[in-house]
Each structure stands twice: as structure tokens, then as C-alpha cells.
Automatic annotation (TrEMBL):
GO terms for biological process: base-excision repair. It comes from Candidatus Collierbacteria bacterium GW2011_GWB2_45_17. CDD domains: EcFpg-like_N. The keyword DNA damage applies. Pfam families: Fapy_DNA_glyco, H2TH, zf-FPG_IleRS. PROSITE patterns: FPG_CAT, ZF_FPG_2. Monomer. This is Formamidopyrimidine-DNA glycosylase. Keywords: DNA damage, DNA repair, DNA-binding, Glycosidase, Hydrolase, Lyase, Metal-binding, Multifunctional enzyme, Zinc, Zinc-finger. GO terms for molecular function: 8-oxo-7,8-dihydroguanine DNA N-glycosylase activity; class I DNA-(apurinic or apyrimidinic site) endonuclease activity; damaged DNA binding; zinc ion binding.
Amino acid sequence: MPELPEVETIRRQLKEVLVGKTISKIEVLRAKSFAGDPKSLIGRKIKDIQRKSKVIEVSFEDHEKMVTVHLKMTGQLVFVDGEMRVSGGHPTADWVNGLHSKHTRVVWTFDDGSKLFFNDMRVFGWMKLVERTQELKNSRYQVPDVIDKDFTEDYLFNSLKKTKKPIKLILLDQNKIGGLGNIYVNDALFMAGVRPERKTDTLEKKEVSKLHKAIVKVINLGIKYGGASASNYVQVSGLGGTYQDHFLVYKREGLKCRDCESKIQKIKLGGRGTFFCPSCQK
Ligand SMILES: [Zn+2]
């Protein structure tokens, strides 16, 4: 599943190439992958590509509707303009091979002949045509994303004070904080020196302050490296981001801590793999 840095990476890349393009055709090859009537978008010019939480939002000039895109487990967006390509999301050979492929679900064609392919092997992802005003009521708008200005130290402190649950579970709760997934939460807790199982009400203000800085830093590192690629695709050379080369504790169980002699341990917390250094994290 792509996390915020992976989604932000493809958003930035698509914004460079899609803004100003006019749609001439939309083919929906799998009904489940596109909600709404795509015909209403013909002749529309793309105004902006934004993101809130892990959802990409495509808006149009003089139009109240927008298209939201969630890549889920295996979704990918590939823009093709002659020899030029922009690929993001789940990294597979479809990033570079001829399209469409058997995983292509939706194809947008622009009036200059360029195309945007939405590929999704397992069909959990979606494109939805929605009213902007309705969409703003969606729960993802009720909390700040970790890279938003309103994700402050105070905001984090107040969200943690209200519960007694393990810190990691609260940080992953998208109804409290937007955009942290399993990779970056493990690494942020390591950077802050806080054990994932610590109960939130035991955290001192000083620790929350350190944690806030660590979260922002780790997410920005993820964006800097273009996100992380799932390990089973790393061998497809050159595909995907490279944050996996910089994991601090995530997927490093049994390996030496980057800061001390201890070995990284793995436990399950809330059903998810959880990684920490027993010496550096308290
Ligand atoms: Zn350590």
C-alpha cells in the first residue's frame, strides 16, 4: 500500500505534466474502478492535481466536480506522451512496458494524444467523480495530514492526551492524524526514542515534541527519496522510490541498530509488524 510519501511523489510528478491538458476520451475498462459518468469530463481542462491524506484529487477549470483517486494495494498511474513517461504508485513492469496491459482499468486520452493509464492488478483502488463541496465533508478533511501546517506539536500532544492506547496505534489512526502508515510510523518512533507499545498518557511533553519533529522529518525523507518500494519489486531495476535503502528499523529485525550494538526486534501490535531497538527506544 503506498503511504503518503509515495502518493505525494506521484502527485507532484503528475501535476507537472497534466495541468492544462484537455480530456478527449475516458475509457472505463472495469466498471468497479471508476464511479460516476466519465462522459461529463469530455472537453474539460485539468486545473490542478492536489492531495489530501492518500487521495489524489484532479480538479478542472470551471467545474464543481473533481476526480478523486485512491491507489490502495496495487494501483498505479502511468502518464504516456510519446517516449516520455511518468509512473507512480505500485511499481511493476507496467511502469515501463507497453500499455494498456491486462491490469489497465481506466484510460484518459487528452486532445494532444497523450494518455493517463490507471492500472490496478487487484482492483481495490478507485477513481471517483465527486462534487467538491460534498467531498470536503469527507473524514479525511477533519484532521491534519502530518505535512500540513496545522499538524503542530500542540495538536499532537492534545490528540495523545485523550487516550491510553499504545502510541503506535494512535499515530496510525487516520481519524486522528492523516497520512502515517506502517513504514514511517516505525521509523519515526525510533527517531524519537519512543517504544511503539508505550501508552500515550505516559508520554511527557518533551517526548511528544521530539516525536512531532521525528514524524515530520521521516515523512519528508520519504518524499525526498520518492517513497519506498515494496521489497518484492526492488529487483525491477530503477522502479519506485528508494526510501527502503534508508529504513531505520522497519523490516530490519535481527539487524544491528543504526545507533547502537543492539539488534532490532520485531513484535506484532494491532496485527501489524512493529520494529524497534530495545536499547534506543524507551
Ligand atoms: Zn539502538
